[in-house]
Amino acid sequence: MSDHEHDHDFNTGDSGAAVTYPKQCSAIRKNEFVMIKGRPCKVVEMSTSKTGKHGHAKVHMVAIDIFTNKKLEDICPSTHNMDVPIVKRKEFQVLSVNDDGFLSLMDLENCDTKDDLRLPDGELGDQIKTAVDKDDNGILVTVVAACGEEAILGWKNMPNKD
Questions:
Q1: Which NCBIfam families match (predicted)?
Q2: Residue 44: which pLDDT band, with cuts at 50, 70 and 90?
Q3: What percent of the chain has pLDDT over 90?
């Protein structure tokens, strides 16, 4: 482990719940998640190159940070393990958008409320705000959590209750 990975001390109360697990580089596929430069990313491109007579095949990955949408690249020997982030997706009903830009959300499974996520920046945030303002049936947002971070990455209208 490099020095900068020790800075984050996630004391969440559960005994060392892993935020990543190892997976052999050659087993990772396009559209799967992988850690690159300490960031959870989704693989968008992969290519394998053969090296010299005694070298290992190298896998070149291009991936997009799932929270910042920045493009990151990594090259690793196909036999090496890479960290794969444990990514959880969950839908929440939007109850309201507060004046400070935070959303009031409700977990449909257990009716718990959640008030610690901001409206996303840019077009996605604008779409959600507009949908909340005009829709009386309610909307759902998709919250993605990985490596101690959470973000709203999508939304849709609530299904009609006929």
A1: eIF_5A (TIGR00037)
A2: very high
A3: 68
